[in-house]
Task: structure prediction
Amino acid sequence: MSNDGAADKLETATLAEAVRGGDRRALARAITLVESAKAAHQDESEALLAALLPHSGKSLRLGITGVPGVGKSSFIERFGQHVIAAGHRVAVLAVDPSSKLSGGSILGDKTRMEDLARHPAAFIRPSPTGGTLGGVARRTREAMLVCEAAGFDVIVVETVGVGQSETTVADMVDLFLLLLLPSGGDELQGLKRGIVELADLVAVNKADGELAEAASRTAAEYRAALHLLRPGAETPVLLCSAKTGQGIAEIWQAAEAAREALAASGVLGHKRAHQARAWMWSQVHDTLEARLKADPQVAAQLPALERAVMAGELAPATAARRLLQAFLGPRKD
Ligand code: GDP
Result:
């Protein structure tokens, strides 16, 4: 696509070197490049990722979720500093597919994690904006690889505890931490059961002051619930306070222990291999769907077919076959 392919290649190699050398401006530029939706950037982005891939993968990838207000940013601010004090470098990324709709994304708010953001051993990147959940997640996943190549050995991927994004984030991390609020009731906090089942670690935040007792109760309830949901899994349920810092060290310890157990059993390698394959396919699906929708033959039929399917006048399978025929031509087999 570009006439000076050789020059692009050289520039990509230089950028990759700078990223690996820990140059923060190069890191930000590299992430902007892999996040770019512009077709013209695709070759360059792929070349960069190819150059960085052999140097990625050496981190602990930790997903963190919880409802808005549970204290995710307060927690990551504390947790990140603790992990840095233990000798690590921490990158914080986010998957927030709503960030386009809400205008000012909760996860993109730059005033969050102020102290952590200033630390030279930390790198914080708000969620990519726009596009489908799959698209946002892909760009975050690629940013994660870039951060790993830049020497960040703990990657935190934050997402909001509503909707589908947890499953998507669980598919890109080694471990998933669910943050909960202390609650008096015995309901599973309006969270979908599936999210609780995804968690490798659970922590009840705000276990301080007047909330301490409710937090202990909530933890006990979740221990009992998880015991039934995942017998034998022994998901740790811990208490913490992002405000006082209490319990943060224990959560890091639990995360490290869980990661070591995964690596030692061979499950980690297996998990990552399957994740990589799943990401390949999700990209194939996304690209095919986008091409299909952009096809003029398909576009001409799509509204009427969708309407007919929604009205129950046409079987979804029949409509799907017609769309595929419009896109691919009649089947030859
Ligand atoms: P997020 O929406 O999940 O990112 O939550 P925030 O980190 O923005 O926190 C929401 C509110 O809870 C803020 O007012 C925080 O000060 C408060 N908060 C966060 N962690 C704690 C905690 O451990 N204890 C108490 N008491 N308040 C907390």
Remarks:
- Residues 92 and 124 are 5 Å apart (CA to CA).
- The first helix runs from residue 5 to 20.
- The mean pLDDT is 88.
- The radius of gyration is 22 Å.
